[in-house]
Amino acid sequence: MKTGTKRALAATIIAIVLISGAAALADYQINLTTLRTVPTVRAMRGDVEIMVVTEGELRAPHSSMLVAPPVNGTLQLISILPTGTKVKPGDIVAEFDPSEQEYNLELNQSQLKQAEQDIIKAKADADVQAAVDQAALIKARFDVRSAELDVQKNELLSDIDAKKNDLALQENKRKLAQLEQDVKSRAASGLAGINVLEATRSAAELAIKVAKSNIENMTLKSTIDGIVSVKENRDANGLGWNPPGIVLPEFRAGDLTNPGRQLAIVLDMEQMEVAGKISEDDRSNVNPNQPAEIVVDAHPDTHFSAKVKEVASMAGRDNWSNTSSKKFDASFKLDNVVPDLKPGVSTQIYIHGNKLSNVIYLPTQCLFDKDGKKIVYVRKGNGFEAKEIKVKYRTESRVVVEGVPEAMEVALVDPTLTQKPGRNSSSSNDAAGIAK
Predict the structure, then answer these.
(1) What is the CATH number of domain 36-50+357-435?
(2) Half-sphere exposure of residue 230, counting CA atoms within 13 Å on the CB side?
(3) CA dist 342 to 81, 86, 227, 335, Å?
(4) pLDDT single digits (tens) 54-78
(5) One fold for 36-50+357-435 and 54-59+268-354
(6) For residues 153 and 174, what is the distance between their CA atoms, to the nearest angstrom?
(7) Do residues 254 and 266 make contact, with C-beta atoms less than 8 angstroms apart?
(8) Distances (CA, A) of 113 to 88, 101, 119, 381
(9) Torsion angles phi and psi, residue 63, rounded to 5
């Protein structure tokens, strides 16, 4: 082989080696860059308290609802106490215009008096008619008896006179029978008329009682000690219901409303509790009588001790929410009465659960959901490998896991999203393959 050819071949080999080394060095630098940009943490062993954190709202479980009285027609408010007014039992909260019911009362009282006078007149007429009928019966019976005596003389009279006496007796008996029937009919008719008038009187008396009751119901009074909370006037928009996103005004003097409409509620401030919702992931960690702390947004520096009162056994779902996550309704009872707290104020709820000893835990940022599996990205060589794990408990900041050895280094972010694109995307995927 000639010297020139040998030199060319050697130069080619040296070039290939240099190119391969440069490529390897580039890949190595990419891996080092990835490792430097992905924050990591090591699995730790220690004690973990299961703490569930959620949001809630103060409410008064004991209350008294005030509704518009069940009367015919539309009702008009003439006065109503504003929201936040303190009341005691017997205090007037709202009043309606009683004019229509007072008119009904006067009308029914007049009808009652008329019915009583009609009954008196009907009974008097019945007594007069009974006397007249009794006199007519006496005369009819006398005529029958007189005709019977005339018939007894028929043996001494001619056939024609005897026949006249027989016909007269039959006619008088017929008249007596007809009169007796008419007397019974008039007596029954008079009694029925009196019964009708008495029914009219009873109806008027009942209407008077209803009118008086309606007049009393025009004034709504509190039955407990508490604070007034006026409801929204759902009749203000003319729809009878509140479309989403529309803010309706509270009831006020002069408003018209329908019978049975909820006007206000008196809240018992001595029995305050907190209502919240527990996510389905935390439901198994919350049980009745567990201690909790309540932080009211209006008093962020004060913690109120409480206990879990009850947790719903079935999950509910917000129909207006786009998420599929389910929530469980829960209530919390404050250990002490706090007079300054008001219903409707938002709160933060910290529920103290079990304390776990000697467990492996990681920050919640390390946990990812891939294809329905819980995984962490474990450092392996110059890259990361996805590893499926089992989550035993979860708190707001930590997860207690199985399948992760102590001190194992895991990524705090998804390394597949932080790696720089290389010449071949499949190489990046291979560096973060899922461990089986």
Answers:
(1) 2.40.420.20
(2) 20
(3) 17, 12, 9, 16
(4) 899 988 888 889 999 988 877 899 9
(5) no
(6) 21
(7) no
(8) 41, 18, 10, 106
(9) -150, 170
Question: Which residue in this structure is represented by tokens 């008001």?
Answer: 342
Identify the pLDDT of residue 113: 93
Tokens of 166: 């027989």
pLDDT of residue 27: 46
pLDDT, averaged in runs of 10, over the chain (436 residues): 55 56 44 62 84 86 88 87 90 92 91 92 89 90 88 84 87 90 88 90 92 90 90 73 73 88 87 86 84 85 87 72 72 80 84 83 86 85 85 79 83 75 40 35
**d(C-alpha 101, C-alpha 259), whole Å:** 13
User: Can you give the pLDDT at residue 320?
Assistant: 53
Q: Which two tokens stand for residue 105?
A: 């009362």
> Domain spanning 63-97+219-267: which CATH class is it, in words?
mainly beta
Using alpha carbons only, what angle is made at residue 260 by residues 259 and 264, rounded to the nearest 5 degrees?
110
Q: DSSP assignment of 290-319, as one string?
A: -EEEEEETTSTT-EEEEEEEEE-SS-B--T
**CA–CA separation, 373 vs 436, rounded Å?**
12
User: Whole-prediction pTM value?
Assistant: 0.55
**Homologous superfamily of 54-59+268-354:** Efflux pump adaptor protein, beta barrel domain (2.40.30.170)
